Amino acid sequence: MDRFFSGRAAVVAFFDKLFNVILHKLWEIEMQIRFKPVEKFDVVIIGSGISGLICAIELSVAGKSVCIFTKEAVTESSSLYAQGGIAIPLSTGDSFERHLQDTLKAGTSLCNVSVAREIIKNSILAYEKLISYGIRFDLTDDAIPHLTKEAAHSFARVCHIGGDASGRFITKALIDKACRESNVSISQGTAVIRLLKNEFGRINGVLACDVTGNKYSVFAGDVIIASGGAGRLFKLTTNPQVSTGDGIALAYSAGAYLQDMEMIQFHPTVMHVNGEPLLITEAIRGEGARLKNIKGEYFATSYHKMGELAPRDVLSRAILSEIEKIEKAKSGFVYLDISSFNKEYFKTRFPTVYQACIEREVDLFGAGIPVAPAAHYLIGGIKTDLYGKTNIPGLWALGEIASNGFHGANRLASNSLLECVVVPHLLVESLLTQKELNLSQAEEMCSVEFDENQYDDNDIENILNELQLRNLNSLGLVRNERLLREHKFWLHNLSEKYYVDKLGQNIKIQEFKNMILLSNLICTLALERRHSLGVHFRQDYPALAESYKHSLIAQNFELTWEEEKSQVTLCYF
After folding, report:
1. Residue tagged active-site, from 98, 290, 312, 479
2. Residues 420 and 462 in one domain
3. Could you tell me the CATH number of the domain that includes residue 474?
4. How many domains does the chain have?
5. Bridge partners of 122?
6. Residue 478 DSSP class
7. Is 312 annotated as catalytic?
8. 502-514 burial, b for 16+ CB within 10 Å, e for fewer?
């Protein structure tokens, strides 16, 4: 009898387990939503900054159908807020090799020399292409490009538009041109939340979500990610609200390699009083402005022989040191002294900064502009080659979101816009040479699983504020093991609580998940890089590395290190 009941219990347990498995599978199926592609394009571009717009224009001219997805208005991107300009060796005595040398010095031996050389060699061609789009650079009275000097440059080589509004003028011109291209469609207020693959592992489309929460899939022969950086991971940043690193999270979830994600550049001079943080272009320092602490003492030359034009990482830490020295004042800033400028010249040359200071009631020509470092540029990102290719067929990346080795461990000023205007042409040329895909085969359905949990908007907002503040304190200018380990533990718990590996039901929730994911990756890599290099400064490991290596990480793969072997002996030519 005991044996009978024992056998019966085993049978009941078996069917009970089987029933639970079936229920779980039915629940999984219910949570999965199937999408049929609603449209087909040769190329989908994620992001509407300068890089993405140039790609769209050039692909359209070549006869390709293009769709640009941008989660806000097409005008909203980091490109719009770029003040300085584009670094191009145009002045007498300057050269490609001198520009290259400055780039490599700033990059602290982590630059890919061949990539840097090719981008700089193509700079004048890209400059001429911009002019052909109708973009007019500022000229001197002699009708030659007006060039200014910025941090770590040995020559004045930064050309600009509208004084300190280069990004705005370039972006507007490119948007106008893209909108006139018959092959270009633009979907505003729409975020891409998943990259889709075919059975062979090639990217073949995207899943998009609009501001109302509607979701649909779009087929594409190729997908280009040009969605900008991730400055909004930090409480203080020069980046707009859209810069939440979504494109990097997309690529990572699809299996792409990420490189040097711990390398985040802080801009040394950002005004964050009486309003949102505002970048104060270092062209002002290039033309004679000086930094002083709240006691009125000029300090830059005591930290670096180049003074106000020292590399950005050095100057940012110098400013932080000066702020911390005078703790009792609790000012949180130093001053940028512009008293040497003629008022009318400053007003004309730097109209954006001048107007902002007047609106914020800053004593511009008296005490000076109150400035402090803020998160500015993501040097790391999706690993690509010179042409924007990733390790996944059909997936490309360029602009701030990409990491091709150009910037090394510390970006040279105004090299970012240079990269943004050069690489799109190289990418388009490479993309056009590949074998044509048959778009008629794009009828397959895709299934996607969503996180069905409901989250309170106020809770999300509060956690997001805490995340940004903790990132600033633990992943900022100065890092150490204790803070990094504590932060990593907190981020791990946050990741599990909000099911970071599952898609959110709307753009806001997915942004939040992406920010947690990227914060966790940055923290992990910053903890593992046990030395100081460029923008990555470890208080507990201040010495430089013995060899220069890139960090590489991908979903379901261990962190690896790849040595940068393309170093050259620096010399002037």
Report:
1. 312
2. no
3. 1.20.58.100
4. 3
5. none
6. S
7. yes
8. bbbbbbbbbbbbb
